[in-house]
TrEMBL record:
Identification of the protein by name: Transposase
Membrane-spanning residues: none
Organism lineage string: Bacteria, Pseudomonadati, Pseudomonadota, Alphaproteobacteria, Hyphomicrobiales
Domain (Tc1-like transposase DDE): residue spans on this chain: 20-160
InterPro entries, sorted: RNaseH_sf, Tc1-like_DDE_dom
GO molecular function, one term: nucleic acid binding
Protein source organism: Microvirga aerilata
């Protein structure tokens, strides 16, 4: 079923000369995340966190050929952030987009849907099934970045923002891994080796 859904989205993208992107959001905070360290046994390090609030949010879009695009915000994701990211990704990719995303309120809001409707040449949207994050290969990108940040101890929101950008930048340099995330999600995309 997931392959059929992505297959029809892929056909639509090809027919309309659009680039298929799978989209997701994630938040980064100073909240304590359990992780392993190289500390000596019995000398557990104590990491002091600045706050427990989500301080930085990331919107990430990936393509089946392994490209990754990210936009980072110092706020929770809203319709305004979604529209800014849509414009940014459209400009970076250079072709009209077919965006496949979940049913987040910011995606379905009147502001976002009106924006997409008024720019129908640039954007088309398809929704993932409800409660099916395992179908979105971008979730694997978020998990990998969060694992890399597990033992980080940013001293400020600037440090947290820089760290999120750095980790997504590292992943961006490994398109073969992003292609494997598509395969791990059980999605077959033609034209990908």
């Amino acid at each position: 079923m997931a392959q059929a859904g992505l297959g029809s989205a892929q056909k639509k993208a090809r027919r309309e000369h659009r680039t298929l992107v799978l989209w997701d959001e994630t938040g980064h905070s100073f909240r304590i995340r359990p992780g392993t360290t190289w500390a000596r046994r019995g000398l557990t390090p104590v990491l002091r966190r600045v706050s427990k609030r989500r301080e930085v949010s990331s919107i990430v879009a990936i393509t089946p050929d392994g490209r990754l695009y990210a936009r980072h915000f110092r706020t929770s994701i809203s319709s305004r952030c979604v529209i800014q990211a849509l414009r940014f990704f459209r400009r970076k990719i250079g072709t009209p987009l077919l965006v496949v995303w979940d049913r987040l309120n910011a995606h379905r809001s009147r502001v976002t849907t009106d924006f997409i409707a008024s720019h129908a040449h640039d954007y088309a949207v398809a929704y993932l099934p409800a409660y099916a994050p395992e179908l979105n290969p971008e979730e694997q990108c978020n998990a990998l970045v969060k694992r890399a940040m597990a033992n980080a101890l940013p001293g400020s929101v600037d440090d947290l923002h820089r760290l999120a950008r750095r980790e997504f930048g590292r992943l961006k340099r490994h398109p073969e891994m992003i292609v494997r995330f598509f395969r791990h999600a059980g999605l077959s995309v033609t034209g990908i080796p």
